[in-house]
Specification:
- There is one protein chain.
- The chain is of the alpha+beta class.
- Helices cover about 25% and strands about 20% of the residues.
- It has helices spanning about 10-15, 30-35, 70, 80-85, 90-95, 100-105, 155-160, 180, 265-270, 275-285, 300-315, and strands at about 5, 20-25, 40-45, 55, 60-65, 165-170, 175-180, 200-205, 215-220, 230-240, 245-255, 260.
- Pfam families: CO_deh_flav_C, FAD_binding_5.
- GO terms for molecular function: FAD binding; xanthine dehydrogenase activity.
């Protein structure tokens, strides 16, 4: 780790007025600094800023410095969000990691984290060895010739499914951005991962009120039960009435370069009967546009099965049928 200057602003105005990299829980930043992937000269410890609070009175509002574990166990938080948080990292890390920091965590691609190898995210124009190398964990959706790394956040998938927004503060004022629009596809500029402007700071996460999102879940498929990133995940919320789907929200992770909203699947579900056959028909659209690599072709079928599993979990008390 290289030397750096550390300051601790006590107000948002002071933080956005100064230059430097923001430090909250540090569960990603410190790791990458140890590896020399990130070498900031100035780090601002923002833990003294008044960016806490959980409000479930009308939708959900989260201060960006709220810890993942506190949000996960707070009454009134939508189950899909709690589930995504509880299946993230370890209990110890969840006790330290902030919600805002989790949304800003960097790629877990091994090539990105190894400064002795090429990586277009870390060193633009150097190449993407994952395309022909070790790519079992990598994306099949939203990829480009320049990058195939998956987005690492679980809770970002749940928030995208529920149309979550973030509030960004800067010296010029504040703005709100839909999280779905915040993350950028890699294209030919994979080092530009999001719409965060220089000096901006996430201050709040907002989820619009959606009463039927109490019927929601997060399914995460991974190589081991805990402390592991997703091979595939699905965040699903369903409005079910009279054994038919009235409305749906579906997003997936572990298979795409950004949290991936499945609008075609949502459309197919609306008006469909609550049956496994109907769920399979809708989930057949989940992998449209997928471009598997040499070692991750299994993710195409896994993606469809994960969506069906999540849908079945949410409707297990409803009458269902499946193809013989």
């Amino acid at each position: 780790m290289q030397s750096f200057e550390l300051t601790a602003p006590t107000s948002v105005d002071d933080a956005v007025a100064g230059a430097g990299t923001y430090l909250a829980g540090g569960t990603t930043l410190v790791d990458l600094m140890k590896l020399d992937v990130l070498t900031p000269r100035h780090v601002q410890d923002i833990n003294a800023l008044p960016l806490r609070g959980i409000d479930t009175a009308d939708g959900l509002r989260l201060g960006a410095l709220e810890r993942m574990s506190d949000v996960a166990r707070h009454p009134g938080v939508y189950p899909v969000i709690s589930g995504a948080l509880l299946q993230s990292a370890s209990q110890q890390l969840r006790n330290m990691a902030s919600i805002g920091g989790n949304l800003m965590q960097r790629s877990r691609c091994s090539y990105f984290r190894d400064v002795t190898t090429a990586c277009n995210r870390r060193d633009p124009g150097s190449g993407c060895p994952a395309r022909s190398g070790a790519n079992r964990m990598h994306a099949v959706l939203g990829t480009s010739e320049a990058c195939v790394a998956t987005h690492p956040s679980d809770v970002a998938v749940a928030l995208v499914a529920l149309d979550g927004q973030i509030t960004l503060a800067s010296a010029a004022g504040t703005r709100m951005v839909a999280l779905r629009d915040f993350y950028r596809l890699p294209g030919d500029t994979p080092h530009v991962e999001n719409d965060l402007r220089p000096g901006e700071l996430i201050t709040e996460i907002v989820v619009p009120r959606l009463d039927w999102a109490v019927n929601s879940t997060y399914v995460k498929v991974r190589d081991r039960q805990s402390y592991e990133f997703a091979l595939c995940s699905a965040a699903v919320a369903l409005d079910v009435r009279d054994a038919h789907v009235v409305d749906a929200r579906v997003a997936v992770g572990g298979v795409a370069t950004v949290p991936w909203r499945l609008t075609a699947v949502e459309t197919a579900l609306r008006g469909a009967p609550v049956t496994e056959d109907a769920f399979q028909d809708a989930a057949a659209l989940a992998a449209d546009g997928a471009e598997p690599l040499s070692a991750n072709g299994f993710k195409v079928a896994l993606l469809r099965r994960t969506v069906v599993r999540a849908l079945c979990e949410l409707t297990q008390d409803e009458p269902t049928g499946s193809r013989g």
